[in-house]
């Protein structure tokens, strides 16, 4: 008998970023495996709704024809805000809209609801809605919450955080299975659980087979790249410093950035006349990977907060997918992946000059870059390939 799964997520194709791409891959691959999989999501809105008026982002003809399996609920908010209460009202709105839709789906007989957090409110929509739908719950944790709120210093009221932690433990304990995209989450989650009654599955972000770059194209100009979110978790001040130092050495720096701090970064570039910094507008995953492939070294930065020690940013995997060695100002899980697999070099977040010095060293040593690039390809092919890792989810669905 065919198994049936409903994915509940705020981020889904054509939304840019790691989360949207992740949910797209899970949806497509489960359907390819013969598991009837539907998606309950919002209208694309990150970082703002107007972005998706451009047909460029709707670049998957097969998904565009899958309207019978993709349910999109409308939301009123036009763009994301860094104000905590504006975000809170957005998440509550999404929760109630999802609950309303789950009520309409009560006769669909899903075997599993696959729900992803953050935000946590979608999880509670799944847990409450499941009283009607009556499916098993696979909870995916892409970020530790509420720790991430504390980490970006947006909300740290002790009484509210204590209440949120109670909700977090409740969320973990009500799930039948828990999927994590970083091994750094494992210890924290197990501390909140009766481990004997729960299964933790490690399912990292990664490329599809066709996305892996085998050889870089030939070019003369040496280029450095940063892609992804410019938000509260990213180290925007150190990224500004990187840009300034690269300008001093006349090195081209390509930045494909979006998010709450993007305008601040653009203003800094203009104010300081950093003519070697090329800002790129948000674009599709395919074009983003093409940009990374055209560059020789990639930059990754996270704020120096303990909660981010557990994170494995999607951009790190994307850089390796494109055979682009990584210079990172990060700690913890991501640093270990880079160092253990020899795909780049890791520095303290404050050591920006050391990072740029290593960029200069790699510029002068193409043979070292080639060895790092080979390690990148070996690493993503062995540990991060979606076509291989999806079997972990298929296995529990058929269990």
Overall description:
The structure is a single chain. The chain has 399 residues and is of the alpha/beta class. The protein folds into 2 domains: 4-206 and 384-398, Rossmann fold, CATH 3.40.50.2000; 209-383, Glycogen Phosphorylase B (Rossmann fold). 43% of the residues lie in helices and 17% in strands. It has helices at residues 18-32, 61-64, 84-104, 120-133, 147-151, 158-174, 186-191, 236-248, 262-271, 285-293, 314-321, 332-340, 352-363, 366-383, 386-389, 391-398, and strands at 4-8, 36-42, 70-73, 112-117, 136-141, 177-180, 199-202, 223-229, 252-258, 277-280, 297-301, 326-329, 344-346. The chain has a 7-stranded parallel sheet with strand order 3-2-1-4-5-6-7, sandwiched between helices. A 6-stranded parallel sheet has the order 10-9-8-11-12-13, with helices on both faces. It is globular and about 65 Å long. The protein starts with a strand and ends with a helix. The model has no long low-confidence stretch (mean pLDDT 89).
């Amino acid at each position: 008998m065919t198994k049936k799964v409903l994915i509940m997520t705020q981020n889904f194709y054509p939304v840019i970023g790691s989360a949207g791409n992740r949910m797209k891959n899970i949806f497509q691959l489960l359907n390819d495996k013969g598991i009837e999989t539907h998606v309950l999501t919002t209208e694309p809105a990150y970082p703002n709704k107007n972005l998706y008026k451009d047909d460029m982002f709707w670049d998957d003809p097969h998904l565009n024809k899958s309207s019978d399996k993709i349910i999109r609920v409308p939301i009123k908010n036009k763009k994301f805000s860094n104000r905590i209460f504006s975000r809170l009202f957005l998440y509550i709105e999404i929760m109630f809209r999802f609950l309303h839709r789950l009520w309409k789906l009560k006769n669909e007989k899903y075997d599993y609801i696959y729900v992803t957090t953050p935000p946590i409110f979608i999880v509670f929509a799944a847990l409450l809605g499941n009283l009607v739908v009556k499916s098993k719950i696979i909870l995916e944790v892409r970020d530790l919450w509420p720790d991430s709120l504390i980490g970006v210093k947006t909300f740290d009221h002790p009484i509210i955080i204590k209440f949120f932690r109670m909700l977090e433990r409740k969320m973990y304990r009500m799930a039948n299975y828990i999927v994590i995209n970083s091994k750094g989450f494992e210890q924290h989650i197990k501390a909140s659980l009766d481990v004997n009654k729960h299964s933790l599955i490690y399912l990292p972000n990664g490329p599809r087979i066709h996305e892996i770059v085998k050889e870089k194209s030939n070019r003369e100009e040496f280029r450095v790249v940063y892609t992804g979110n410019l938000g509260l978790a990213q180290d925007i001040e150190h990224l500004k410093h990187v840009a300034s130092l690269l300008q001093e050495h006349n090195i081209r720096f390509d930045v494909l950035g979006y998010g709450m701090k993007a305008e601040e970064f653009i203003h800094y570039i203009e104010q300081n006349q950093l003519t070697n910094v090329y800002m790129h507008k948000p674009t599709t995953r395919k074009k983003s990977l093409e940009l990374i492939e055209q560059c020789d070294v990639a930059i990754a930065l996270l704020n120096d907060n303990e909660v981010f020690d557990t994170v494995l940013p999607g951009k790190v995997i994307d850089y390796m997918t494109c055979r682009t060695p990584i210079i990172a100002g990060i700690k913890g899980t991501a640093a270990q992946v880079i160092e253990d697999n020899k795909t780049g070099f890791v520095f303290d977040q404050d050591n920006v000059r050391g990072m740029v010095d290593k960029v200069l060293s790699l510029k002068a040593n193409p043979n070292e870059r080639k060895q790092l690039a080979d390690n990148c390809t070996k690493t993503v092919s062995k540990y991060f390939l979606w076509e291989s890792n999806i079997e972990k989810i298929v296995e529990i669905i058929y269990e």
